[in-house]
Amino acid sequence: MKHKLMFLAITLTAMAAPMFAQGTAGGTQPSETTRLAAAYIAMGIASGLCGIGQGKATASAAEAMARNPGAIAAIRVALILGLVLIESLALYTLVITFVAK
Question: What's residue 35's pLDDT?
Fold first, then answer.
């Protein structure tokens, strides 16, 4: 079974290689306005999803602290680490927005 999966992966990689080697056939690059609009839409989506994720994480942490007051310190550390990782999505998207200009 392992050999079949490896053979399949190698075959798919070999078949996809010519597709990436082709140049554009008269295609044009997207305009600056289009790139900027896409970057702003991505920032809006990322910010919205970060807000939802942070809300769910905070609610779950508050519920966990209420159920087990002895583990408040460990839950707080996990909550802060989780919030930092969630917020990094919005920050990376903000950087990409500035690069797209």
Answer: 78
Write out the DSSP string of 17-51.
HHHHH---SS--PPPHHHHHHHHHHHHHHHHHHHH
Domain boundaries, the chain: 31-100
Instruction: Please tell me the predicted confidence (pLDDT) of residue 68.
Output: 93
d(CA 66, CA 72): 9
Q: CATH topology for 31-100? A: F1FO ATP Synthase (1.20.20)
27, 31, 37, 38 alpha-carbon torsion, rounded to 10°: 30
- Helices and strands of the chain, counted as H and E runs: 3, 0
Q: What is the pLDDT of residues 35-60, one digit of tens each?
A: 778 888 888 888 898 999 999 999 99
pTM tops 0.90, yes or no: no
HSE, CB side, 13 Å, CA atoms: give it for residue 83: 15
